[in-house]
Description:
- There is one protein chain.
- The chain is α+β, with helices and mostly antiparallel strands and 165 residues long.
- It has helices at 9-20, 26-33, 37-49, 82-94, 119-131, and strands spanning 69-77, 98-103, 110-116, 136-144.
- Strand 2 and strand 3 (110-116) form a beta hairpin.
- The longest helix has 13 residues, at 37-49.
Amino acid sequence: MADSVALDPVDLEILRLLQNDARTTYRDLAARVGVAPSTCLDRVARLRRAGVILGHALRVDPARLGRGLQALLSVQVRPHRRELVGPFVERVRALPETRTVFHVTGPDDYLVHVAVRDMADLQRLVLDEFTARHEVARVETRLVFQQWECGPLLPPTGYQGDENP
């Protein structure tokens, strides 16, 4: 598990603002959190070095790209051994339909979020790219009807950083 990082209220506000709009300029960000632009730049750089800020991402609408159907695939891999799951995960990550891959606990080993053209494309993906693999024992498909973005991710209330539970 990664080490936690101590964050003060200014750091938390910077994180909140950047998660709501990553294109905010340092000058605007500094004004909104009440510090000098150079201080803001230093704080953001420190958050990047500490691994709190991982990068910048562009969100796209899958439907506008011809991928109007999204699904969650629960995948069981058998036997669940490192020499099989490593190549499996790399192959799934390389598929253009894959949005996210989660390694999970429970009866299934992976949860894969995919975006495809339509039901026929989803069927092709499941049959040709998942169930055709020798290490895949089972795939269960759930269609995504709707998805909502949530607020920025911040530490739990009262979190001090660098604490050991």
